[in-house]
Amino acid sequence: MLKKLVILTAAFLVLGGMSSAFADSWVGTVSDSMCGAKHARAGAEAATCVAKCVAGGSKYVLVSKGKVYQLDPQDKFADFAGKSVKVTGAMSGDSITAESVEAHTRAKKAEKPSGQ
């Protein structure tokens, strides 16, 4: 009986740890449910509008590659209104349950050496 419990516990821990390993990521802009894809580009104007709309009752959404995704939990996105982010988590339908959110900046292209 004890052996089965130990094996079951070990399996649970391994599978639980693997769920994070299989999380997906999306890059996009945090917008709001009222404006949606209107804020596909990050910027100061988008940040101001998103913050105002959320204060008025809208929900945070992610605009990525022209598609709008619902986001949960909402409190993870309060510091990212109108900003470019990388969201890691799980998708179900058109909703993303976020495990983590971080600011995303585009990598600069390498400059060509002069004279070439």
Q: Give a short account of the largest sheet.
A: 5 strands, mixed, barrel
Low-confidence parts:
none
Instruction: Count every beta strand, where a strand is a DSSP E run of 2 or more residues.
Output: 5
Order of helices and strands: HEHEEEE
The number of helical segments is: 2
The global form is elongated
Strand content: 25-35%
What's the average pLDDT?
85
Structural class category: alpha+beta
* Amount of helix: 25-40%
Give the spatial strand order of the biggest sheet. Answer: 1-2-3-5-4
**Radius of gyration, taken over Cα atoms and rounded to an integer in Å:** 19 Å
- What separation lies between the terminal Cα atoms? 73 Å
Protein topology:
Blueprint: H1 2-21, E1 24-32, H2 44-55, E2 60-64, E3 67-72, E4 84-92, E5 95-103
3D structure, described in words:
With 116 residues, the chain is of the alpha+beta class. It has a domain at 24-103. Helix content is 28%, strand content 33%. The protein is built from 2 helices and 5 strands; from the N terminus they run αβαββββ. The chain has helices at residues 2-21, 44-55; strands at 24-32, 60-64, 67-72, 84-92, 95-103. A 5-stranded mixed β-barrel has the order 1-2-3-5-4. The model has no long low-confidence stretch (mean pLDDT 85).
